[in-house]
Specification:
By secondary structure, this protein is mainly α. It contains three helices and no strands.
């Protein structure tokens, strides 16, 4: 279904009637390949403190 950007009632109906079962899990699964650990890079750039060595 394609909705016109100005069709507010259509958007409300589409959002309210959407099947949201598992939506969060699908969103996380889709996003996982797009993220990577960045803390080492931030620490190397001096933007965050480095972790203290383990005792």
């Amino acid at each position: 279904m394609t909705l016109h950007p100005d069709d507010v009632d259509g958007w409300v109906q589409a959002i309210e009637s959407a099947d949201r079962t598992g939506l969060g899990a699908r969103a996380r699964a889709g996003a996982a390949p797009l993220v990577r650990p960045c803390l080492p890079e931030l620490a190397a750039a001096g933007l965050i403190p480095t972790a203290a060595p383990a005792a």
